[in-house]
Amino acid sequence: MTQAQNKEPGDHNSPQPPRENVWVEILKTLGLSAVLAFGIRTFVAEARFIPSKSMEPTLLVEDRLIVDKVSYHFKEPQRGDIVVFMPPDKASDVCTGKITPSKDAYIKRVIGLPGETVAVREGRVYINDRPLQEDYIRTPSYQYGPKVVKQGEYLVLGDNRDNSCDSHSWGFVPRDNIIGRAVVRFWPLDRVGGISPEPKYDN
Predict the structure, then answer these.
(1) In whole angstroms, what separates CA 177 from the centre of its chain?
(2) Which of 21, 102, 152, 183 has its CA 20 to 30 A from that of 73?
(3) What are the residue boundaries of the structural domains of the chain, listed by start?
(4) 104 falls in which pLDDT band (50, 70, 90)?
(5) Which residues lie below 8 Å from residue 55, measured CB to CB, with a gap of 6+?
(6) SS3 of residue 147 by DSSP
(7) Residue 54 is a catalytic residue
(8) Does 4 score more than 90 pLDDT?
(9) Which of 69, 92, 108, 164 is catalytic?
């Protein structure tokens, strides 16, 4: 009888698994990294920069922010949140003079919530006839309202009130247009930290 020959684990003649080309391995790694980065940017968080002076003095031109895109899946935007959103079609016409809807996201502060009556007079915002205490803004000179914020929509204003094309110019932001909430400034280094003080009612 012929006996089968057993190979020892260390036998150099045992077959070795084929080794992938190093370039294939690199491409796989890069592809996985790209997929992960895309997933994080699409569903979790993303970086944004400030292109204009509309949010001064809170946010300055070229500030870099991290935008949280998860929390609004579990709760609604709150007054004082600084939000990134796609503007309604009307905003493009009012702010840029272009009929074509803007493809650029805006960043403003949530001031009026669904169902609330908002007015601006004598440099102050009133919510349901109660004044907001906003120590972080540049005082507006315009008058607005009173107007009732529609259900499922929000009134947003820039902190640099007279130099911000926002809800007082073009209306409310639909809830579905809101991308996320700006939570952290990571650049410049001397101003790293949280960015969203909450407006308060006067007593």
Answers:
(1) 11
(2) 102
(3) 46-201
(4) confident
(5) 82, 107, 108, 109, 158, 159, 160, 164
(6) strand
(7) yes
(8) no
(9) 108
